[in-house]
TrEMBL record:
Top-level division of the source organism's lineage: Bacteria
Domain spans labelled Thioredoxin: 37-155
Protein name (database record): Putative thioredoxin
Pfam families xref list: Thioredoxin, TPR_19, TPR_20
BP GO annotations: cell redox homeostasis; response to stress
Length: 321
């Protein structure tokens, strides 16, 4: 794909007097509230490049954009141009040292964000400044063009919205920053495991959801919740009936979803993934979305680092795009 320079194409609208004034006032209010709550201090270098999903978008992008421009890198594992562009953006984020934050968004796992931004192809790079979204560029672009675009973005953030960026503490203890919150989360996770051991799936699900309500990125809670919900869905199923219905009604999305749940619960991981990828390929609209979302749920059961998940994500991307 030839790079289509969208550099600052939204600046005229973004810089309109009324819109800029309102956004600036809101950003100042947000920064003041952050300061009152004891936030807004120095951040470690790891905070300059972050992975963002739909659940954390408001906190990690919209709220953060009241302090610093947030650049959005829409990418996918199968996208070769993305693999060339993303390292450049990550290096520049560290080089600019807090003048902007890079938020990486996997389009396969975050279809809603992709649709909201009107992404037609990847890589695609957008920015959010004081809650205002604007396109930067699409496709590969030479580094000098990227730098020029970033410089314009930072200038708009400073002049129109008073965003001076983040203070970066190069000596920050990265391990301390990344460590999970102690105490309440540990207790809640232990309670969830105890509930699972006792066969109380409802109690385990509630406990995991309590953790995720406070810490949406908690990987242990995500995995535990996905597993508990899967067990809850299949515990009352009649396996023979479910499999017969799936065989008799190949176009029945709910029948295929139920059979995929049984496949996964029985350890037939690739069968479950393949069934739902094929269902996504054959369907459209709400049916396709239902199959896709259940497939993403099943990815959580196995874990994102499993090679079977990686292969299924690639297969899903091919039928979607």
């Amino acid at each position: 794909m030839q790079p289509r320079n969208m550099s600052m194409s939204g600046v005229v609208d973004l810089a309109a007097v009324k819109a800029a004034g309102e956004a600036k006032a809101k950003a100042e209010q947000t920064r003041a509230e952050t300061a009152r709550q004891g936030g807004g201090g120095a951040v470690p270098p790891s905070a300059l490049v972050i992975d963002v999903d739909e659940a954390g978008f408001e906190r990690d992008v919209l709220q953060r954009s009241a302090e610093v421009p947030v650049v959005l890198d829409f990418w996918a594992e199968w996208c070769e141009p993305c693999k060339q562009l993303s390292p450049v953006l990550e290096r520049l984020a560290r080089e600019y040292n807090g003048r902007f934050v890079l938020a990486k968004i996997d389009v396969e796992a975050n279809q809603m964000l992709m649709q909201q931004f009107g992404i037609q192809g990847i890589p695609a790079v957008f920015a959010v400044v004081a809650g205002q979204a604007l396109p930067l560029f699409q496709g590969l672009a030479p580094e000098p063009q990227i730098r020029e675009t970033l410089d314009q973005l930072i200038q708009v953030g400073e002049q129109r919205f008073g965003l001076t960026g983040l203070t970066v503490d190069a000596d920050a203890d990265e391990s301390a920053v990344a460590a999970p919150a102690p105490g309440p989360h540990d207790a809640a996770l232990e309670a969830a495991v105890d509930a699972l051991d006792a066969g109380d799936l409802g109690g385990a699900i509630r406990a995991y959801r309590n953790v995720l309500s406070d810490d949406p990125a908690n990987s242990e809670a995500k995995l535990g919740l996905a597993q508990a919900e899967l067990l809850s869905r299949v515990q009352e199923m009649d396996p023979q009936k479910v499999r017969q219905e799936a065989a008799d009604r190949p176009d029945d999305v709910q029948a295929q979803i139920a059979a995929a749940d049984l496949d996964l619960a029985g350890g037939h991981v690739q069968d479950a993934f393949g069934r739902l990828v094929e269902t996504v390929r054959r369907t459209a609209g709400e049916d396709r979305d239902a199959a896709r979302l259940r497939l993403l749920d099943l990815f959580e059961v196995i874990g994102p680092d499993d090679p079977r998940v990686t292969a299924a994500r690639t297969a899903l991307a091919r039928v979607l795009f």
